[in-house]
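Re: the multi-chain job from yesterday

Posting the exact lines I submitted so nobody has to dig through the queue logs.
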Amino acid sequence: DSGVTQTPKHLITATGQRVTLRCSPRSGDLSVYWYQQSLDQGLQFLIQYYNGEERAKGNILERFSAQQFPDLHSELNLSSLELGDSALYFCASSPYSGQGRSYEQYFGPGTRLTVT
Amino acid sequence: LAKTTQPISMDSYEGQEVNITCSHNNIATNDYITWYQQFPSQGPRFIIQGYKTKVTNEVASLFIPADRKSSTLSLPRVSLSDTAVYYCLAPNQAGTALIFGKGTTLSVSS
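And the result, structure tokens for all chains:
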């Protein structure tokens, strides 16, 4: 158990819908990272927040957005869902800010999103 | 464009040493290279990270040459429980995004 929690564990929804994935980092960790893992694309970095501020951005679609709240939990919002958005979404936390410092991250169990 | 490249799969036997190499292209020159292990239906688990030369911890060693164009994860005396997918992770040159390799599936047999 990494100490990172993600809800829900599974999510089934229809194309065009909007969903919110939630992540609670380990106690004391200020960084939250979001990743998408699909069979054909592997692990794709989406976005990182550090203490409430966006710190790094990867291949995150405009239909996707994220934020980190004052209590450090984070939410990933996915809208106008398409079949290709079906994937495992992981959240990871770290006590470090990245960028020249450690990328040691602790991953949650993931949310499996199925778009039908 | 930053890119990391790893072998798709490797096979080994219990007790052998396994070396997995990741090639890095256009990554940040002053940043850590990190390796993760992932079992099916679980999130990746941190193994080791390094900046240059050699780093060793209780489970693995990491070798990074001076040009930092590659890194090699070394697993000493693997066991069946080391069967997993191994990923290298490096930041892009600007340090604004993280690049995961496609992963190397290691299969350990008895």
